[in-house]
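Data availability (excerpt). The following record was deposited with the supplementary files.
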Amino acid sequence: MPAVNSQYSSYILGLTLAISSSIFIGSSFVIKKIALNKITAKGNLRASAGGFSYLKQWMWWLGLATMGLGEAANLLAYAFVPASLVTPLGALSILVTAILSSKFLDEKLHFLGKIGCILCVIGSVILILHAPKSDVITNFPDIITRLSDSIFIFYVCTVFILVVIVRTFFAPKYGKTNITIYLIICSAIGSLTVVFCKAVALGIKDGINIYDTSIYTFFVLLVMAVFGIMVQLNYLNKSIDIFSTTIVTPVYYVMFTTLVILASSILFKEWQNMENKDVIGCVFGFIMLIIAVFTLNMFKDLKNVN
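Predicted structure:
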């Protein structure tokens, strides 16, 4: 009974942290967009054009701090519940962003856009109901062993090659017209960042200290996680400077969730212990998310839809 109560407490704590993370991150999109709009209004070089004037804007730093709180809550959540459960809850940030954008940015969310947001939430709920509720990896040494898996290493190499190709050949030509260019970089790097954050969170949970032989590995993973977050922030910044936050948020969410689930399935192999109905539920939930994103994108320019 104590073990069951402990597992339930961990699940509730992880769930609470994940929800809090979505609220903070959803708010940060809008706060940073307001800051970027102020920079543009003053005639400074836009972030999407390589400008860094936003670093002098206090509101942008507030947005960064808000996102930092969200990322911290997200990091801790990975120590208590599976990544495939934490990540889908990011759909809540879509609602937060949509509500705040309509209030502070005058970005009108038409009827079909609202339907898209609702579908995002429903799809996420379905994923949450069918996703694994407990971790197959519960300590730092276990995840370090998993990181040396050949299939996961192949995935890491594929991600880096993909990012280099997109950044070198596609971003200069299509970055300002195609919303997926910058976001695929964010999502690909983000899928690895989640893994590194999971390892760091387990290290913190296990109480890694200076006397542990794995302390060097812990700090390497910490640096890689921080670097990954910085890359995500940079390209996410460029994206929200060009496109509407009501579109950036859901597209980023679906792309990011897809790659995180893929990375998690490769590294943690959570799907091996799932029943067929749960696998079908996860697939159905994700298909619903894809429909939601297409709804938001295909009809985003319809001004007369109420």
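Summary of structural features: The first helix runs from residue 2 to 41.
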